[in-house]
Amino acid sequence: MKKYTYTVKGLNSPEKAEDAARIVAAILPDATDIECNQESSTLSFSIKFNKTNQNDAEQRLLGALAVSGLELILPEGVNTYSYVGDKPKKVRTVPLAVAVSLIAAFMALTVLFTFASCGFYSVGINGGVFNPGTNNGSSSESTPEYISDLVKLDEIFRMYSYEGVDEEAMRAAILKAYVEATGDLYAEYMTAEEYKSYLDDNAGDFVGVGVSVVYTTININGFDYNVLQIISVFADSPALEAGVQVGDCVMYAGIGENKEMVQTLGYTEAISRIRGEAGTLAEFTVFRPDKNEASGYKEIEFSIERRAVTSQSVTYRVSETNSKVGIVSVTGFDMTTAPQFTEAVDSLKSLGCEYFVFDMRNNPGGALNAIQAVLSYFLDKGDLIVSTEYSDGSKNEYYVKEVKYSSEYSGYNVSKSDIGKYKDLNMIVLTNENTASAAELFTATMRDYELAEIVGTKTYGKGCMQSILPLSRYGLDGALRVTSAMYFSKSHTVYHNIGIVPDHEIELSEEAKEYNFFLMPEHLDNQLQKAIEIITQK
């Protein structure tokens, strides 16, 4: 056992020192002799590490301490947060009046989705040192030619332009353009506001009315209108209390004389009109399907007070065609997923379900910590969940174990009784071309451990990992997402840019495709019906 000592910025009170000590105890339960010295701004503890475990533990501590306003200074001097995945296409999580999941299949926009781990995991930048406010060891002579060209162009533009330059807008646009031009399909520069929104989304807690929507089109009397169609209403939400229903189509932002069409406003502006702070009113007008109306829709106005709501990444129901089958749909992996997944399976078991369909269709991925927790329910202690491999040849492996994080991340906890509690279920997995990242890891792991067969169509093929680097320590606002590693399930089968081929390939029928996926009648869902047929005949 060796003693490790680190400098920690922000230890300016006894309370902060106590917080740091508690975090070490929670993140590293094997650590002893934990000491936090406010005067010297140091944190020390004794523990037995190998190199891989030490790197992993340091990054977890870095992220957990950051939440409490403390900065752990690592030997490399690098502060990053790693993520294992990205939405394959722009999927925006948008609770009406907030952000909740919009699935790629129904989005005309393009927003990258990343597998978030809330700052628990990190990697260095090729093992190097980056010093804020410097050229990172490079001289002016080594400045890339394109940077010099940009400076020249900026000088020329400012000299001759009548309009001038919006400094802030130009800055953000240049940083975004640089990242896009790198060719890293999953890289992105996020402004400070975008980064905050991103972290809020991954936490699973929002202020809003509590619904999920997709931006789609409906036809009324031969004319197409862009609307926000509601695909789920959260439990215990203001929307549920107000009578909002799945299938309602938000045609207008606002009510009465103050309403404006979503089609005119466009997606982004429509959402911004409905968003707001807790205690304020979200006002919108929906068109609800009604056969008694000449247009086929009834117009209803809502004025709903916004409040804190928790997103629903897991929904469940007993099959309409076989009461012994429970259907668990997972639309993403975040801090809410593991506890909601447990509630779903346990509730269906109590209702007499003997067979389980885990629907990963249109699931773009999510938090590494969340998928680790969920997969722990199906595996034994010590089983490999995922391994990550970096460009320098280093590797990390993550195994099933008991996990207890601080209260901010309790949604990722795994207790002794959680491990392996669902491994004996009769189960099957549904996938399609929008099953990506964490959802593919779930699928691959179920196959690797021979726990379930796969039904549907080939998955998206996303097996690379991104890191999120908060840029404040480098003198910049916002954050940078960059691809930093590849990740693999137990079998180490490569599915990146390839996808996972199901055991039973079946395309969604043309009749089923005429429906919004989330509103599709169960009896028309031929992929689901095939899954039920296979699992119940075993």
Overall average pLDDT = 82
Q: Give a short account of the largest sheet.
A: 6 strands, antiparallel
What structural category do the secondary elements indicate? alpha+beta
Contiguous uncertain segments of 5+ residues: 76-140
Principal-axes geometry comes out as globular
The CATH topology of the largest domain is given as: 2-enoyl-CoA Hydratase, Chain A, domain 1
Discrete helix count: 13
CATH superfamily of the largest domain: 2-enoyl-CoA Hydratase, Chain A, domain 1
Written account of the structure:
The relative contact order is 0.13. It is built from 13 helices and 26 strands. With 538 residues, the protein is of the alpha+beta class. The chain folds into three domains: 74 residues, Alpha-Beta Plaits, CATH 3.30.70; 106 residues, Roll (Pdz3 Domain); 209 residues, 2-enoyl-CoA Hydratase, Chain A, domain 1 (Alpha-Beta Complex).
